[in-house]
Amino acid sequence: MSEEIADKIVRRIRAEGPLTIAAFMAMALHDPEGGYYARRGPIGAAGDFTTAPEISQVFGELIGLWCAEFWERIGRPDPVILAELGPGRGVLMSDLLRAAGTVPEFRRALRICLVEASPVLRAEQERRLRLAQPAWVTRVEELPDGPMLMVANEFLDALPIRQFVRGAGGWSERMVAVDPAGRLVFVDGPASPAASLLVPSRLRYCAPGTIVEICPAALALAGALGSRLARLPGAALFIDYGDFPTASGPTLRALQRHRPVFALTAPGTADLSAHVDFAAFAEAARAAGAEVHGPTSQGRFLTALGAGLRLEALSARATPAQRQSLESGVRRLLDPGEMGDLFKVVALVSPGLASPAGFDPGIDPGEPAQR
Fold this sequence. Notes:
Layout: H1 3-16, E1 19-20, H2 21-30, H3 36-39, H4 52-55, H5 57-73, E2 80-85, H6 91-100, H7 104-109, E3 110-115, H8 119-129, E4 135-137, E5 148-153, E6 162-167, E7 170-178, E8 184-191, H9 193-198, E9 211-214, H10 216-231, E10 234-243, E11 253-256, E12 259-261, E13 271-273, E14 276-277, H11 278-287, E15 291-297, H12 298-305, H13 307-316, H14 320-334, H15 336-340, E16 343-349
Parallel strand pairs: 2-3, 2-5, 3-4, 5-10, 10-14
Antiparallel strand pairs: 1-7, 6-7, 6-9, 7-8, 10-16, 11-12, 11-13, 15-16
Helix pairs in contact: 5-6, 10-11, 13-14
């Protein structure tokens, strides 16, 4: 357990009172000294979780071709910003750029910007992507102006959430407190009319005991991108796991060495995440001026982009062992019982453009894939 950040959180609670879950997550993940992302390389077999780009190169390659096709739709701007939020170890961007190289004019037009707050992950990105000459920023607001294509895989799920609990007297916020033994525990704050206003309207009259999560940071990001895309041509593609439509229930979880642990027992040493509310995210982007396509399932999206054909091409020149690995990775991405349905894809785009590749305009947004 990271004594430094755990002690820091306990001291703050004793000085200021219980913390919101959002404040706890912000400290546990991003404290510059003891936070999870400040000190650890979290991704891969030696880390705490694995992401789609680490599972199969097909994932990043197809997204690269998606970006190239969309660049054509917006008039082939040169230069065009290619931004990635939370680039992890740089694997997605590396695979994306390899595919982009098949469209030389597109590759030459790209100005790569990576939004990364973790010094550990940035060091890995620098090693992997040095020849691509990316620029780094720590916040979305620091991205330069101009036409932009944005990609974000498993970024929204790590943004801090707040939880609200329906009690007999109304809604209250779930907080993080310290028990008499000095352990971090969840407690319910006092009932508050203000808390009820933060709960999505369709869930406001749920049964007592219901827990509802919101993510203000995700809504703020959607609003900022919606405003930008209404003003400048481009698109933002988000891939993440979550709910559509909005659902109740606690989804906050912690992972340590690929195993679940209690969210409050290991601050600074475990990854924290929660399901994305895609309906709320899409609504905020649309209200700010963007057009929204999806969410659709990851399996349906990647299949529509040609995952099967790409797998065939790679397998044709692979050894039997390599072929087995390729097939296993793509199956994990597409299978409804693995990542195919749980992970969803949504695109925020500038107004007036046709439905992007991978989003069938004849299918209702969020319609579950047929099993």
